[in-house]
From TrEMBL:
This is DUF892 family protein. It comes from the Bacteria.
Amino acid sequence: MHDITNMRELVAYYLRLIYEAERELSQTLPKIKDEINSPALKEFISAEVDEKKKQQMRLEMLFVLLKEEPSATCSDDIVKYLISTNSVLREKYGSNEASDHMTITLYQALINYIVNIHKEAIKCSDALGYDVVSRMLKRSLEEERKLSQKLEYLEKAYAPKEQDPSLYR
């Protein structure tokens, strides 16, 4: 990545971070869905795959507006780390109710990360007077916040009934 020298480049950088996170999730969620035990959670993940693809399309429209490319040169190590953590935990503890809960918790962390990037991108867009970009980002942010609320509910609903000491080693 080259050095960011102005606010416009910063907006584009934030959009690329969001885009990369959405792309990673839309590719990874189907694999995660196959490892989930709960049918209701599988259904939820399926719907989220479709939503992540819609988010990608919205971001692609923003790139067109800004005359930028959604290049994959923007590596998002946080997203990759959280996704790989889910795989490692499932390998170590198997596929059960506790691992479903861990998946929800990690997904919640990813969505919170995406929400925070949205907020920063909106601040920069507002400062530049990019009203259309800000409006579209705010709509996208609202979708991410709704997802965050659903995940909070699911996190509580799928919390293990009794604590498994092996989870805390």
